[in-house]
Recover the amino acids of this structure.
């Protein structure tokens, strides 16, 4: 049975993983594909998470994945 995130995205295979996160393939109801980054919620890395989100919100480049939305509580 597939995992559905926020009643919107179906999570697929893992594309990559690291110490603080995992990136999974996701699809919405229309079949649009997304790279979904699932980050570990830990106080010691919260400053890094906040910095990354601030930068991603400002970036607009054809060779960089665009930030679509941010959610908490998975």
């Amino acid at each position: 049975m597939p995992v559905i995130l926020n009643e919107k995205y179906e999570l697929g295979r893992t594309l990559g993983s690291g110490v603080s996160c995992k990136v999974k393939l996701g699809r919405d109801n229309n079949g649009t594909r997304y790279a979904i980054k699932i980050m570990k919620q830990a106080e010691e890395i919260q400053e890094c998470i906040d910095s990354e989100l601030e930068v991603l919100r400002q970036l607009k480049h054809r060779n960089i994945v665009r930030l679509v939305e941010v959610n908490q509580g998975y």
